[in-house]
Design goal:
- The protein is α+β, with helices and mostly antiparallel strands and about 170 residues long.
- It contains three helices and eight strands.
- The strands form two sheets. It has a six-stranded antiparallel beta sheet, sandwiched between helices. It has a two-stranded antiparallel ribbon with strand order 5-6.
- The longest helix has about 45 residues.
- The chain starts with 15 loop residues before the first strand and ends with a helix.
Length: about 170
Amino acid sequence: MKPKSNKIQIPSFDDTTVVGINSSLPDYKLAYSVNNALAIDLARHDDLVFEGAPYAFFYYTAGENYNVYNLVSLVSRERVLYTFNPRIDYLFLIQNTLSPERQMAIMRSLRQAEGVIHAFVLEKDKNLRIVLETIAGCEQQMMDKKKLRTDINAVRQQIQEQETRMAELRAQS
């Protein structure tokens, strides 16, 4: 029997579409505009922190087996998470495979969204991969916190149900 090898799972990002957005809007206004354009519900979560600077992080998923959307600000207090040429202010990530038709429809809607100056699909090179890994780590932390809150709420609910049952038993005796 072979001994187990400990391997780190590194996401491939092959099924992730990365869109660069140039916009002078503040992050919350751009998220609102993107929500309206794509009929999604991006919500702000804990900021992505990279080298001590916070970058706005928005997340939306419609559920399992659907696309997951992230909007990440690349500028924070005059610091830039990653420099692109031409300039990009935000990354919009779409996880899970898109058909070419769906991708074209999303891009058309993004380009027409209020406050979007320019939007285009980025090629994933090794430098962009570092940014994607950072964003994936942030998303995982957010999901872990959400799961912990859900677990805590479930335990609270169970305690309430047990206290209610105990009160009913005391009332019966």
